[in-house]
Design brief:
The complex is a heterodimer of chains A (339) and B (299). With 339 residues, chain A is an all-alpha fold. Chain A has 16 helices and no strands. Chain A has a domain of 219 residues. The chains are: A mainly alpha (339), B mainly alpha (299). Chains A and B meet through helix 6, helix 12 and helix 14 of A and helix 4, helix 5, helix 10 and helix 12 of B.
Chain lengths: 339, 299
């Protein structure tokens, strides 16, 4: 029965771009959002480390992928040089080879960064971790906009998508779908085993977990690396899908993507497997609505939404459903009443 | 690193940077003190800090724009922001005072985004600066220049800080605030309306930020979206100094101002903000590492 549900969901996901051909870009971004909130929830929900800086891996992946893709064929410095009259062409084979290698490199770079920063940054707790990572996110955008070889403040244009591959949105929809499904299965597998128990223990009481002999730093770093891997690879694809990479507003967009991922996970219900997915879908619908009908006021609406969600629905949709129908989540009703 | 050589060849430049930095740091000290107050009393890290500063700047800008004397700008901003702070507390903050720490960070971050965009809609996205009508001092035969407004703001900062210390030490309200910060439950038992105290504290913080913002608008520029660096600076200063240590806050703020000026000069202006945010991370890690050696963590 459960397998059937998953199969049905997958079938819907596979059919979606053909059923709604005009919404392909939005559908692709929906998957990006789902991945955002799932990867954030691994730290924020399951491990109790509320990060505002996971966007760093996303932005890093974006830049690494483009640099690899361009670097395989052309000279990167020449490519980003302003006002160049030279036209850079990529054949289909060059583009695909660059994309695959670029996304792999993006994943590796993001994991390497997470592993390097992890031990130190994840030593911070509570307020300090949240604001430290916020600083990290904004700093990386500022640093990227000061480096000339990747276009500095004026950003970078990724290689043009070759027409022979069909619609760009549909192509990336399926790339992202594959990535999201793999990520979901990975998280499901991780949460159902010892690893999930360990990071939940860290969330509930880190000192006790440490006293019980858990190597907390190692678990925390590994968890960050897993999130970083998926975020980095996704970043590589998103850069090319958007078609332009701005250091502050697309790559290291701490003020938009960086906050949305937190919000989506909380809206759906943090610390649950499905919560972030549901939250991302609901949020994405809301956001598309705001951006379409309330243009100019969308950030006001977003700010309001943050306050409302955080203040009034801190347990999220799944948390609310758990309270409403505890028996459907495998809780016995009397034990729920005793809580 | 050629800028570093310039600094060695013309040491008088570092006097300029140092003076600039210290005078700028004085303004940071105000916002940071407000943050320390709210953090200490209500256990909330107030991310809206920077937006209060910018809003204060706009109030001062319009006060002067509509013919008010520049000296009026500071109290006008403080009074208006007191009202804004009180409103924000009554609408949102009181609901998150006793919640999880992260909830309050996220809620105030939401308000920050909201205010940024509202200011953008109301005041427009132009960069503004308020005219203080003050001149410039020239020292060392023209090598060092100091804008009088910067000196005036440092003096104003010192005045506001002294006023605050006196208020917290001696007035009834101040004593109630301190009692609540020491033990909210006990304060309630002896008949202090803690909700009122929280509202007052939060509004007071907004007023301090407003005063700082008025000085910012006269010294540099204001823009709806440049509030966050002030929040980060305040946070950094409080982390270095410790909550409830006003002397430390002032020293740390002056230090930060000076360090930032030197970094901006040596690394180039495009990296100045990156330096501020990077420094925050480094300071947090360094403090945490020192505590780790005693098997404690930053809390």
């Amino acid at each position: 029965m459960k397998m059937l549900n998953y199969a049905a969901l997958l079938a819907v996901a596979l059919a979606a771009p053909f059923v709604f051909p005009t919404y392909q870009a939005q559908l692709a971004f929906l998957l990006v959002m789902v991945l955002f909130s799932m990867t954030w929830d691994m730290q924020g929900g399951q491990m109790g480390y509320n990060s505002f800086g996971n966007i760093v891996f996303f932005g890093l992946g974006m830049y690494v992928c483009i640099v690899v893709q361009v670097g395989l064929v052309h000279d990167v410095a020449e490519y980003t040089a302003p006002g160049g009259s030279k036209i850079f062409r990529f054949t289909e084979a060059q583009f695909l080879e660059g994309l695959v290698l670029g996304m792999i490199a993006a994943g590796i770079a993001a994991v390497a960064l997470a592993a390097t920063l992890g031990a130190a940054i994840l030593g911070l707790r509570g307020h300090y971790f949240a604001i430290g990572t916020l600083g990290l996110g904004i700093a990386s955008g500022e640093i990227a906009s000061g480096i000339d070889i990747i276009g500095a403040g004026s950003g970078m244009t990724p290689p043009l998508f070759p027409d022979s591959l069909g619609a760009r949105e549909r192509f990336f929809y399926f790339v992202f779908l594959a990535l999201t499904v793999i990520a979901f299965l990975t998280f499901k597998w991780l949460y159902s085993g010892r690893f999930g128990l360990a990071i939940n223990a860290i969330r509930d009481d880190e000192d006790k977990a440490e006293a019980m002999g858990l190597r907390t730093t190692r678990y925390k770093t590994v968890s960050w690396c897993v999130s970083a891997l998926f975020l980095g690879m996704m970043g590589g694809g998103v850069g090319i899908l958007i078609g332009f990479v701005d250091p502050r507003n697309t790559a290291f967009a701490a003020g938009t993507f960086g906050v949305w991922m937190v919000l989506m996970a909380i809206l759906g219900g943090k610390g649950t497997l499905w919560g972030p997915v549901i939250g991302a879908v609901v949020f994405h619908l809301f956001r598309e609505f705001f951006w379409t009908y309330l243009f100019g006021w969308q950030r006001v609406a977003l700010g309001l939404l943050i306050v409302v969600i955080v203040v009034f629905f801190p347990t999220g949709i799944v948390g609310w459903m758990k309270k409403r129908w505890p028996e459907r989540f495998g809780h016995r009703v009397e034990s729920a009443a005793a809580e | 690193m050629s800028n570093l050589d310039i600094l060695f060849q013309a040491p008088v430049l570092s006097v300029q940077l140092l003076l600039d930095g210290i005078l700028i740091g004085a303004i940071f000290a105000l916002a940071a003190y407000g943050m320390a107050l709210v953090w200490g009393v209500m256990n909330i890290v107030n991310i809206v800090q920077g937006e209060f500063v910018i809003l204060g700047g706009y109030v001062a800008y319009y006060t002067i724009h509509w013919g008010g004397h520049p000296v009026l700008g500071v109290p006008a901003a403080a009074i208006v922001l007191y009202g804004v702070g009180w409103l924000v507390y009554r609408v949102v903050i009181w609901r998150v005072v006793d919640k999880d720490l992260f909830i309050s960070i996220l809620a105030t971050y939401g308000i920050a985004i909201l205010m940024q965009q509202l200011m953008n809609e109301v005041f427009g996205a132009d960069i503004r600066t308020a005219e203080s009508g003050l001149g410039t001092w020239v020292l060392f035969g023209g090598d060092v220049t100091i804008a009088e407004i910067k000196v005036a703001s440092a003096v104003a900062t010192a005045f506001v800080a002294l006023l605050l210390v006196w208020f917290l030490k001696n007035s009834r309200h101040g004593q109630a605030i301190r009692a609540t910060s020491q033990n909210a439950r006990a304060a309630r038992i002896v008949g202090i309306d803690t909700d009122k105290v929280y509202a007052n504290t939060y509004a007071l913080n907004a007023a301090i930020c407003g005063a700082a913002g008025a000085l910012v608008s006269m010294t540099w520029v204001i823009h709806p979206f440049i509030g966050i660096p002030y929040t980060i600076r305040s946070f950094m200063i409080v982390v270095v100094a410790g909550v409830g240590n006003i002397g430390g806050v002032i020293v740390a703020a002056l230090g930060l101002g000076a360090v930032e000026q030197f970094a901006g000069f040596i690394l180039g202006v495009e990296f100045q903000l990156a330096f501020v945010f990077g420094l925050l991370v480094v300071i947090l890690l360094w403090r945490n590492l020192r505590l780790r050696s005693e098997r404690r963590v930053l809390r």
